[in-house]
Amino acid sequence: MKGKARRTIEERQDKKKEKLLEQLLMMPIVQIACEKIGIGRATYYRWREDDKDFKKKANKALSIGVSLINEMAESKLITKIKGEDLKAIMYWLNNNSVKYRRNYFNYRWELKKMRQELENKNIEKEEILEDFRRLLNTITNDLKIKNVKEE
Q1: Taking the CA atoms of the chain, what radius of gyration do you get in angstroms?
Q2: Cα-Cα-Cα-Cα dihedral sign, residues 8, 13, 16, 22
Q3: Distance CA 74, CA 95 (A)
Q4: DSSP symbols for 91-117
Q5: Which of 23, 66, 68, 151 has a beta carbon 3.0–4.6 Å from 33's, enabling a disulfide?
């Protein structure tokens, strides 16, 4: 009797695994796929750990599911581009054309360089102001001395 019960449980699990794989193909988000077939995420990860064949199939289903969602998103983006949506056009060019691509690291480097130049100018400005103050003090002192001598 125990053997038959065990087979029944395994058959039920195998059906659930197949349903889960189908869900992952349509929606490659583990939490949502698990909810749709009525199992917890912990069960999914336990099955992956215990059943290497299931893990391989799950990885494949997730990969295909992500590809399908990407294709759908690209289709929507292209529809927006055809509708002359400027944000969509800019996004596409930024991510698909070297000519228009923004290089994040180059921008950061440019900003860092500009910041350094500004800091250097501020230092220079402070030095100029300090020199001016010294000169002003010298002139003021000279005038005071001159005034004292004339009196």
Answers
A1: 35
A2: negative
A3: 12
A4: HHHHHH-TTT---HHHHHHHHHHHHHH
A5: 23
Q: How far is CA 99 from CA 5, 51, 90, 106, 108, in A?
A: 65, 47, 12, 14, 19
Residues 6+ apart with CB under 8 A from 100: 90, 93, 94
Buried b (16+ CB within 10 A) or exposed e, 28-49: bebeebbeebebeeebbeebbe
Prediction pTM value:
0.59
What digits encode the pLDDT tens for the residues 133-149? 777 777 777 666 655 55
Half-sphere exposure of 18 (CA within 13 A, CB side): 6
**pLDDT tens-digit profile of 14-34?**
999 999 999 999 999 999 999
